[in-house]
Write a structure and sequence with these properties.
Chains A, B: Keywords: Iron, Iron-sulfur, Metal-binding, Pyridoxal phosphate, Transferase. The structure is a homodimer. Chain A is of the alpha/beta class. Chain A folds into three domains: 248 residues, 3-Layer(aba) Sandwich (Aspartate Aminotransferase, domain 2), CATH 3.40.640.10; 115 residues, Aspartate Aminotransferase, domain 1 (Alpha-Beta Complex); 73 residues, TusA-like domain (Translation Initiation Factor IF3), CATH 3.30.110.40. In chain A, the strands form four sheets. Chain A has a seven-stranded mixed β-sheet with strand order 2-8-7-6-5-3-4, with helices on both faces. A four-stranded mixed β-sheet of chain A has the order 13-14-16-15, covered by helices on one side. In chain A, 57% of the residues are buried. The interface between A and B is large, with 65 and 65 residues.
Chain lengths: 459, 459
């Protein structure tokens, strides 16, 4: 078995396991009590806070432990917005933030606030100038992830932080995906993170708020963790989380170099081994361990099942694998193919042989799914001037498969019309055109629902 | 060392430790993923939910795991209030709820809702009829703890639940202190609990919401745990929590009988061994492992330090031991002495010898503090008609010490006036009169601040 999905959750680091076991005996009491067991728990908590703060790059009294990364994001966004309510109620997020940030933004909108989503380029990064343009006099808070969780693209946090600082707006950085690799650069105001992403246990997040940042915790009062994270402290988890963060940082440089070589290999070899694949995300400014690609004419779920049977655990941003049946908002914002999407995120210490075996297995898995779905075999010469495809009622990846087959029936310069009502088609048909070098002409709403998509054959 | 404060936090049960260790290997992955590690995590989570639901007495799909008992209370109160917003915005709580419930109520008030606090008798229990009288047509939610965390009094939950059911109002029961001992009786609608109180790990709470109860989760959307508990599931903690609950339940009947005998011994012997002590809480309808008493003429902090030096870890609801410097709202609502308050809550398996040693040590600890503070030695015969004591600027327990000394200077039928501005005097002077058999006449606000308390000597 090869587990290639640390971006979802990393196995517990051995150092974390050891720290957890030790602190189960020492850290179960209430750290606010004055007796021996309480003082011992308090000492563990204080030491963990010092260690975590050093790794994050802040003062110990600026950092609290939350119940999860999600809780850290929710508390951070709500507290920072409330702290600057007099300035205004405008929030800026990037379009590719983690759902925890986007959901916090939606809650803010339901509460009467306004949110601007800053778009990203095809590589998944925001443009710092475009981000700066979104800053307004009534902007209370800006959010930008340190690196994207689905495609690994590193965001220009330092540049955006500078623009925010000049505008007097605090910047909250969701650093969940990057804290294992190093501190966040630049002049950030708040940071949120999640221990189970760096090899710590589940149930621990961190929220750092720089001194001087106006912050008003929301929700019912609670005295613990400076009033910013309610509930009895999970000290064994916190101790293990801090220990894991130190441990992964100690090996980060070496692991980053090794894993970057392996993900580069995947980036290069997958398009050679599998036809009709788009590798997505910035090829250079990216996390070392994460690579994402989309395979045309397959559904992500079938590919994931095939890889699981072959012993590989990976993730997908395709609609078919999520409960909501909408494609990843990240891939959509980037304008890249969402169908047949595969995210590989390698754990520390991944062996070269595992990656080679993955590259051996992948082509057969994709081929099998394509055969089953009747995907187009390859480019053919067509003669028709125009072909219309009825893909109404068909779901991802069928509309694109039908388009792929139809394009082979028209001459170069001819057009294909696809009638489809699957929401994903609106993302995947333009993205297909981009990867295939064909011209995406337009989408026109159909009276009965769905849309007619028009594509012109160029090659 | 004897740790006598499980009502704050219990040491991890051996079964929980074992379950935690095992599930660290099996339960770190994302249970929403379809690959092997995710399916394994999901199975652990499902099994833990079944086990916890059985212990709570509900269906598995009615129970979610939260990040703490506090989180369960906050989410439960907010969700139930929002679910019945159309009915009204009135919330009922008892005056002796845990601060998590009271703080949720305060947040509701800040948000424009109204809260009724139902008082308690000297034993700490609400009167079911008085509670029922508080129900109104616009009551959205009622809250009542199963048993009090400071004095151990068991509340008449079944009776109150019946009244709520008749009025069509859901009842949320904070069962944090009692779940180790058995399911909550009666027709409750929501239950909140906290694993570290029953020997599970910190970082896990439970929230059960009966089918049919209108519930609208508040805060940002999150798909996990039926949308009721945001953040990545802490599966090893959850597995350990469920295992611990089953384990403590299996031994509950035997332990309850043993510990009840030991706490009965404390209830009987402490007043024999230490003069001027009030044992508080209901002597019969109470948790088996918990006993609370207040010692006149001492401050809780000094007694706790003395007991800690002698090897006993206990808790106190006295103002001097809390960061807020206000006495326990529970003791205040009961109208009992708050000074020199000591709560003993025995862990499972407490040895009889430990309790005997506690009874050996306690009188000396209290005597030493009293000597240091100059407490009144005992009843003396006085001759004066009236004595006025200036206790302005003095803090607990000094105003009561001065009163105790002054009462010895007046004749039976004579009066003592105490001028004091310590907030605690308003609680402790009437309570002192009650325990000493003296008449509390009145308190009159003084022009310069504080109050003049008048006491008549009866014995």
């Amino acid at each position: 078995m090869s587990y290639f999905d640390v971006a979802s959750s990393a196995p517990l680091h051995p150092v974390a396991r050891q720290a957890l076991r030790a602190s189960l005996d020492e850290g179960w009491a209430d750290p606010s009590r004055l007796y021996r067991e309480g003082r011992r728990a308090r000492m563990l908590l204080d030491a963990a806070r010092e260690a975590a703060a050093e790794a994050v790059g802040c003062r110990a009294d600026e950092l609290v432990f939350t119940a999860s990364g999600t809780a850290a994001v929710h508390a951070g966004v709500a507290g920072a917005l409330a702290g600057r309510r007099r300035t205004g109620r405008h929030l800026i997020v990037s379009a590719v933030e983690h759902s925890a940030v986007l959901h916090a933004g939606q809650a803010h909108e339901r509460d009467g606030g306004t949110v601007t989503e800053v778009g990203v380029g095809r590589g998944g990064a925001v443009d710092p100038d475009a981000y700066a343009d979104a800053l307004r006099p009534d902007t209370a808070l800006a959010c930008l992830q340190s690196a994207n969780h689905e495609v690994g693209t590193v965001q220009p946090v330092a540049e955006v932080a500078r623009a925010c600082r000049e505008a007097g707006v605090p910047l909250l950085v969701d650093a969940a995906q990057s804290l294992a690799w190093g501190p966040v650069e630049g002049d950030w105001s708040l940071i949120a993170g999640s221990a189970h992403k760096w090899g710590g246990p589940a149930g621990v997040g961190i929220l750092a708020v720089r001194k001087g940042v106006r912050f008003a915790p929301q929700g019912p009062l609670d005295e613990r963790e400076s009033g910013r994270a309610p509930g009895f402290e999970n000290i064994p988890g916190i101790v293990a989380a801090a220990a894991a963060l130190r441990a992964v940082r100690a090996e980060a440089a070496g692991q980053a170099a090794r894993l970057r070589e392996l993900t580069d290999r995947i980036r290069t070899r997958v398009p050679e081994l599998v036809p009709d694949v788009e590798v997505v995300g910035d090829p250079v400014r990216r996390l070392p361990h994460l690579v994402t690609f989309s395979c045309l004419y397959v559904d992500g779920e079938s590919v994931l099942h095939g890889l699981d049977r072959a012993g590989f655990s990976v993730s997908s941003g395709s609609s078919c694998t999520s409960s909501t049946l909408t494609p990843s908002h990240v891939l959509r914002a980037m304008g890249v193919v969402s169908e047949g999407n595969v995210r590989v995120s390698l754990p520390l210490g991944t062996a070269e042989e595992e990656v080679e075996r993955f590259l051996d297995v992948l082509p057969g898995v994709v081929r099998d799914v394509r055969e089953k779905l009747g995907a187009p075999a390859g480019p053919t010469e067509g003669a028709a001037e125009s072909v219309t495809v009825d893909a109404m009622g068909l779901t991802c990846p069928q509309p694109v498969i039908e388009l792929g087959k139809a394009i082979g029936k028209v001459r170069v310069g001819g057009t294909v019309h696809v009638d489809a009502d699957d929401e994903v088609a609106a993302v995947d048909i333009p993205a297909w055109c981009h990867t295939q070098g064909q011209e995406y002409v337009e989408a026109v709403a159909r009276p009965g629902g769905g849309a007619r998509y028009t594509v012109r054959r160029l090659v």
